Amino acid sequence: MVCYNCGCRLSEHDFCTGCGADVGLYKKIIYMSNRYYNDGLDKASVRDLSGAIVSLRQSLKFNKNNIEARNLLGLVYFEMGETVSALSEWVISKNLRPKKNIADDYIDMIQTNQSRLDAINQTIKKYNQALLYCYQDSQDLAVIQLKKVLSYNPKYVKAHQLLALLYINIEEWEKAKKELIKCSQIDTNNTTTLRYLKEVEHMLMPEEAAKSTPKKKLFSDDVVRYQSGNETIIQPVNVNEKKGISTLLNVGLGLIIGLAIAWFLVLPAQIQNAKADINDELRVVSEQSDAKTATIDELQQKVQSLTDENTDIKEELESYQGTDGALKATDGLMMAVSTYLANSEDTEAIAVYMEVLEAEEGEDVTKTASFGTLEETFLTLISPQLATYYYDLGYASYRSDDYEAAIPNLERAYRYDSANGDALFYLGNSYRRTGNNDKAKEIYAQVIDDFPGTEKARNSETYLAEINNEN
Amino acid sequence: MIDFEEELKKFHPSLEVEDAEEAIYNEDLTDMADILIKMVAKAKPEEE
To answer: Are residues A128 and A82 in the same domain?
Structure first.
């Protein structure tokens, strides 16, 4: 403490030892300021921020140079969300004591973070806008704005109080109470908060009383209501439930109703489902059956067509075979041709195969056109050779008086060479020598007709006359 | 019972950052000590 007059440090006396000025009253003023500062500090330490503000402002009214009081006041303002007021106090504090002042740190803390400062400013602007909405009777908008404000600055006591006031106005007691509880957590002894809280609790008192006691208290004759969070629970009282028989009756009734529901609702549906399943299976089976029937029909048709084809093929085959002879005839001709192609001089082998052909031709055999063509061509080719072969054989047999053997060869010789009159004449002689006079006469007549004026013919006439005379 | 309108009157707009400078300048920092000094200063010429 220094003298207000000369700035000399004061002693315990009530006068200044430097200038002699009366400092008794001055000291008392300073003591009062310090007293209020202490009081404000005590209140601030127990979070009675409103009380602390009053005490600290009193302290500053006594002594504006009480830097500690001013700095603490700024802190209290800052804690309550009044950032600009806090900044004001700190700026004044810094001006009063430029050096070794913690207000420097407080100011730097806010001003260095520009985004935080902007957020603080926006918060204040929104609060002022909400207040304006309240004046304009746009309370819904005010509520919205205040909620935004409190989301940015949850310690803004005035915003909490204003919001609580709005909730009280629309009788949202629980919401108002929540806001006021938050206020009291920040500033315990705030008069406005306590007043609002008293009002809210008074409105909630019957429900609160019921909630606080373990037993339910009757609010009216027939119901009791209490709050559980945000829900109001209303429960009838004096309702005695009849146990025993009523329970059994209720259970029985429930069973009957359940069975009835099952019988009329559940069972038909299940039956319907079962029927639908059966119908589906039946349809599937029918489809399969139809498919198989169609397959069977198709296969039967196929069998029939194959049978018909088989029959046709058999007929065609038989037409190619005729009887067994047609096949052999073809074989004989083929072998004869094959033998000729292999060795055209092998007349004996060719003759053998031609005899096979000749033997089958004697029967009623159907020839194809190609067979006939081949046979004709081959005969044209081989006839002279065969005629010579068979004439030699026949004549050799004739000369050795083996007329039975000569006859077929001489016949073949004449067949293959109808110009060979000798073969015909000797054939006739062979028939005559074997006693076949009818055949001999026929041959002799043929010689006479085919070879007139020749010795063979004259001899034939002679032998013919002899045969006729014998008969 | 709380009167909304009456209570609303007690709420005043908060100072914005732009208003801080003016508020600081307009702050009356006269305290009891200043008053006492003035009184003493006033009383002294009268004694003389």
So the answer is: no
Phi, psi of A271 (to 5 degrees): -60, -45
Q: Are residues A350 and A453 in the same domain?
A: yes
Residue type, A439: K
DSSP 3-state of A390: helix
- The whole-angstrom distance between A242's CA and the closest CA on chain B is 46
pLDDT digits (tens, 9 = 90+) for A235-259: 776 655 556 788 899 999 999 999 9
Q: Name the strand (E) or helix (H) holding A406.
A: helix A403-416
- Does residue A420 lie within any of the structural domains? yes
Q: Hey, is the C-beta of A145 within 8 angstroms of any chain B C-beta?
A: no
Q: What is the pLDDT of residues A421-439, one digit of tens each?
A: 999 999 999 999 999 999 9
Count of C-beta atoms within a 10 Å radius of residue A78: 21
Would you call A16 an interface residue with chain B, using a CB distance cutoff of 8 Å?
A: no
Distance in Å, alpha carbon of B39 to nearest chain A alpha carbon? 11
Q: How many distinct structural domains can be found in chain A?
A: 4
Q: Which two tokens stand for residue A206?
A: 């019957």
pLDDT number for residue A304: 92
CB atoms within 10 A of CB A179: 26
- A-contacting residues in B 15-44 (Cβ below 8 Å): 15-20, 23-24, 27, 29-34, 36-37, 40
Question: Which tokens go with A37?
Answer: 């500062």
Pair A141, A257 in one domain: no
Q: Which of A192, A217, A236 is the last residue of a domain?
A: A236
Provide, as residue numbers in chain B, all residues whose Cβ is less than 8 Å from the Cβ of A169: 4
Domain boundaries, chain B: 16-47
Residue A30 structural domain: 24-112
**Chain A residues inside the 8 Å CB shell of B1:** 199
Asked whether A234 and A224 are in contact (CB, 8 A), the reply is yes
Dihedral sign for Cα A358, A362, A365, A369, please. positive
CA distance B14 to chain A (A): 6
Domain boundary among the residues A178, A204, A236 is at A236
The reply to whether A282 and A405 lie within a common domain is no
Report ipTM (2 d.p.): 0.86
